[in-house]
Amino acid sequence: MPAGQTIIIKKIEDDGHHDHHGGGWKVAYADFMTAMMAFFLLLWILAASEEETLEGLAEYFTPTMSAMRGGGAEGMLSGQVVELAGEQIASDGAQEPAPDLPDFGANSPLEVFDSRLRDAEPEVVVEYLPADAAPPSAEEIEARRMAEAAARLQERADARAAQLDAIEEEIAARIAANPNLADLGDNLRLDRTPEGLLMQILDEEERPMFATGSARIVPQTQALIEIVGETIRDMPQVVAISGHTDSLPFAQQAGYGNWELSSDRANATRRALIDAGLPAERISRVSGMADTMPLYPERPEAPQNRRIGLLLEYPEPALEAGQAPR
Description:
This protein is an alpha+beta fold. It has a domain at 148-320: CATH 3.30.1330.60. Helices cover 37% and strands 11% of the residues. It is built from eight helices and seven strands. It has helices spanning 24-48, 51-61, 110-113, 115-118, 138-177, 219-232, 258-275, 317-320, and strands at residues 81-82, 88-90, 188-192, 196-202, 239-244, 283-288, 307-313. Strand 3 (188-192) and strand 4 (196-202) form a beta hairpin. The radius of gyration is 51 Å and the shape is elongated.
């Protein structure tokens, strides 16, 4: 060792932190596992026990409520009820109603142990076809489909008939309410055809609907056309207008006959309906038929053959499906 060198001695004290841990944690872990085993054993016993056994266990562990509910009037107070502050508020054996206290499962002891009894199960009704029931055949499916289609058609026909009844009643009521039209009941004829409701304005011997040999509408006919137009203007159906004449030859001027006259009268009726508020796009066609379709074929010269037809057409399938009218 060189001379004069200082010798330093370092002393280290061991506080024992680095010693190996003991086995105390094993005891705690063993206690925990024992408790878990006991818990699951209890659950298994509750699930496997009979109802009578569970009732006995519930009654054994359920505390008695007789003292809590004031089961008798004997004792120090002899039926008196005392407030918390000590003031007597009832005497002479009077009993105040006991407060609602928990029964701790006394009324239904099994619900304490079995949650299935506390939560009501929803009522489920399951229907099954018989094992020997065969699926419907193609004929049965087709028959069912045809029956449903027939029911829909009948329902549509009933609704259509009710609508036409309402139109006829309204037109008749409005004509009856107008004193100037009281004698025109025979001049308006309503017929239900396969194509729709046909409203015909007829000539009579003494009550013509147009001026003789002309397309000029007389005032009474104008009022009648206005009533019809105002009644059907809010309907969805389209209107077809046709003009008709009798078979008498028309020779007022050269090149002008029954075809021209019937067409001009039908077109004059179209203008009158539009003036009454019927939208122009609701008119599907205007036709002049001359004397080709007489109302009385056995009497082609009859004045009733001179007429105007207003056909309120039934909606086509495309229109019923919501498509635009033609």
